[in-house]
Design goal:
This protein has 9 helices and 11 strands. With 296 residues, the protein is α/β, with parallel strands linked by helices. The two termini are 30 Å apart. The strands form 3 sheets. The protein has a 4-stranded parallel beta sheet, sandwiched between helices. The protein has 2 domains: 150 residues, Rossmann fold; 122 residues, Rossmann fold (3-Layer(aba) Sandwich), CATH 3.40.50.1980. It comes from Denitromonas iodatirespirans. One of its GO terms (biological process) is cellular response to iron ion. Keywords: Signal. This is Cobalamin-binding protein.
Amino acid sequence: MIRRFALPVLALVLCLAGPAARAQIVVSDDVGQTVRLPAPAKRIVSLAPHVTEVIYAAGAGEALVGVVAYSDYPPEARTVANVGSYVRFDLEAIAALKPDLVIGWRSGNPATQIERLRALGLPVYINESRSLEAVAHTLRQIGILAGTQRAANAAADAFLAHRNHLHAQYADRPPVPVFYQIWNQPLMTINGHHLISDVIRLCGGRNVFDSLSVLAPKIGIEAVLAADPEVIVASGMGEARPEWLDTWRRWDQLKAVQRDNLFFVPPDLIQRHTPRILDGADLMCRHLDTARERRQ
């Protein structure tokens, strides 16, 4: 079923400032916190690589004054001041940049450090996209916060058009049981609430660990053997296919091994909550079609 988002929450509150009135920007972030800005943000700090990428996609790249490690797309993001990593950012460095908006990541940033930023009086918007529609929603929200609605809305519309095209192409195809491996030691996967699961569903796949309660749980090999996926997909950490994808070949009782359905999707195209995830979806969908073709 296609989930629908309401239009981005935006309230224009007239605040008296001397003889003139000005519009205040008020939005709700992805954890339900209200973020208020007196005017569109002109100095933004990003606390996750995917957030950096979405800011550029929303037409607000010129407002970026600070990013975290691995903020490498688009290439110009590499020239922005680094404030640490998404799990350990430098609060003093962020404060020195005098941002009028910080955009964080719910699943990646330590909650204690986020609260310390708020204690410094900095507006913080928390992002957490759990569906493809949520990626479009984030683009629109950043457009509101940065005053780049025209570019952001155009990007969101194009993203949804691409998503809908893939849905029309693959939604009615025979389902394929999929195990998505995000790491090898410890062995980790995703549950049904993860954005990658939405990609799997878009392609007509079924995440065999859909019902687990943790977003990115650790599991045992025995659990994978019991689930017996028809396809195993892994991304690793870079552009190269991870060697540990081939370690599954020792378990020749698995359908995925018997049919050589061990597939790779570059992590930047599937593990970042950005418009490029649909490029990863294109590849994922083709892999699942290959698996369908290999059925006896």
